[in-house]
Specification:
The complex is a heterodimer of chains A (246) and B (205).
Chain A (H helix, E strand, L loop, with lengths): L39 E2 L4 H4 L31 E10 L9 E5 L25 E5 L5 E7 L4 E3 L5 E3 L2 E6 L8 E7 L17 H5 L2 E2 L12 E4 L2 E3 L15
Parallel strand pairs in A: 2-11, 2-12, 9-10
Antiparallel strand pairs in A: 2-5, 3-4, 3-8, 6-7, 8-9
Chain B lengths: L19 H5 L28 E9 L10 E5 L24 E5 L6 E7 L4 E2 L5 E2 L2 E7 L7 E7 L3 H6 L16 E5 L2 E3 L2 E2 L9 E2 L1
Parallel strand pairs in B: 1-10, 1-11, 8-9
Antiparallel strand pairs in B: 1-4, 2-3, 2-7, 5-6, 7-8, 9-10
The chains are: A mainly beta (246), B mainly beta (205).
Chain lengths: 246, 205
């Protein structure tokens, strides 16, 4: 049975022991960019339990196809062809419908298309490296891309990011706003990455690693990786609305 | 034995990184032809939007006093009557000409972010008391492991700010001014200090 009324309950408290803390000196940039004072806690008000919702109409036909969305007509990006798909759920296991999911990544050689990027690996003239989609009524999303390469970065002397795709996700409330990264099953760089290791909880790291999904792999075409994203759950509204007397 | 609760765990946050613009504001970084415009860019109010026009300007500043040139700021706010344009707004219909959400990357040279918006109306707190007009901000960047939530109030709302239930909860009163945008004419200036003596109050919401 589906509850068709809009949900107005507050969100489950964030487990900040599971999330990375602000100050993680192994990731050097966090040292001067981490607040040192405690966060002030507040139960969500209207300002936090509401949030922008984006329609399917803003999505163009190829927004979720990174193999072609930047390519010249008739050409395609170079690299391992993959599909990434899964559901945006909340902590209750409910699919989050109409959630905007944005993603960006380096090309097959680990090179980002960004004017501040100086890595010597070349750009792919047919690869932009970003896309977006809005989840369906069950919270499902999917996109086609090429598998990003690992990428060196000036943190330690010889630090390399594992292959990863950045995700930005909107739920239904601004308090659910989340940016995270997806990693790929079996990549040995995951466990030595200072950014991955900002997450203190090994189980939480594993939840960011997408498994190879042979069931959705298309023979002679592309491999699939499955990546579910979980946003904060929200409380039942039965005893929430009366406080305001409306 | 009891029934299992069976809740899932939230996905862990990770930094947006230095190239957040590629995914969120590609035109800003010079990648044209995929999205017509960057989501959340441009004026938040149009000719029909109700309310007083204000420009919110600021910078995100690190613990050494240096403005971040790779931050991204999003704001979320009510319309001029205090209604949110959201399915979870149950008190009434928001202004159809005001979406209420904006996104701005920090300027790559100066670090400044700018929102052309309207001054929001008052929104009730959970117990019905009015909250002073405010804008909710969310800040991400390289070096920030989990997005930071804060609020900006308006310096020309001194009486309402004094009664605001959220500002009232801040035990160290010397920190309250870090949440007050300084209004001069139509421009409200709000610098966000990540660390140090003037560290902005951030919320766990």
């Amino acid at each position: 049975m589906k509850n068709s009324l809009p949900e107005t309950g507050g969100f489950f408290a964030r487990d900040r022991v599971m999330h990375p803390p602000a100050y993680t000196p192994g990731y050097k940039t966090s040292v001067l960019r981490s607040p040192q004072r405690a966060l002030i806690s507040l139960d969500g008000t209207k300002s936090e339990i509401t949030g922008p919702v984006f329609g399917h109409s803003m999505i163009n036909e190829f927004d979720n196809d990174l193999i072609v969305n930047f390519a010249k007509p008739g050409e395609m990006a170079i690299g391992q062809r993959i599909m990434v798909h899964g559901r945006v759920l909340d902590e209750r296991g409910v699919g989050v419908a109409g959630a905007l999911v944005e993603f960006w990544q380096a090309n097959a050689g680990g090179r980002y298309r960004h004017k501040k990027e100086t890595y010597l690996a070349p750009l792919d003239p047919n690869f932009g490296g970003f896309g977006r989609c809005v989840t369906d009524e069950n919270g499902y999303y999917a996109f086609r891309t090429i598998k990003p390469g690992p990428y060196p970065w000036p943190n330690g002397v010889n630090d390399w990011r594992p292959a990863h795709i950045h995700f930005s996700v909107f739920g239904h409330g601004f308090a659910q706003r989340l940016i995270t990264q997806m990693y790929f099953e079996g990549d040995p760089l995951i466990w030595i990455c200072p950014i991955v290791k900002t997450i203190p909880d090994e189980e939480a790291i594993k939840r960011l690693i997408a498994p190879l999904d042979m069931n959705n792999t298309v023979p002679m075409d592309l491999r699939a990786y499955k990546f579910d994203i979980v946003l904060r759950g929200r409380r039942s509204t039965f005893f929430e609305n009366r406080k305001e007397g409306n | 034995m009891v029934q299992p609760l069976n809740y899932l765990k939230e996905s862990a946050s990770q930094t947006a990184g230095p190239y957040v613009h590629i995914g969120c504001t590609p035109n800003f970084t010079g990648i044209h032809g995929v999205y017509e415009t960057d989501l959340g860019s441009g004026p938040m109010a149009n000719d029909k939007t109700r309310g007083e026009r204000v420009t919110i300007k600021g910078r995100v500043i690190d613990g050494s006093g240096t403005p971040l040139k790779d931050a991204m700021v999003e704001i979320w706010q009510a319309d001029a009557n205090g209604f949110y344009n959201s399915p979870s707004e149950t008190r009434g219909a928001a202004d159809p000409n005001f979406f209420g959400w904006g996104r701005c990357p920090a300027d790559m040279v100066t670090g400044e972010f700018v929102f052309e918006t309207i001054k929001p109306g008052s929104v009730p707190f959970n117990d019905g008391r009015p909250m002073a007009p405010h804008v909710t901000l969310w800040v991400v960047a390289r070096g920030i492991n989990i997005g930071l939530h804060t609020r900006m109030y308006f310096s020309d709302e001194e009486a309402a700010n004094a009664q605001d239930p959220i500002l009232g909860r801040i035990e160290h009163r010397v920190r309250v001014p870090t949440l007050i945008g300084k209004r001069e004419g139509d421009v409200v200036t709000f610098d966000i200090h990540l660390q140090g003596e003037h560290e902005t109050v951030f919320f766990d919401i």
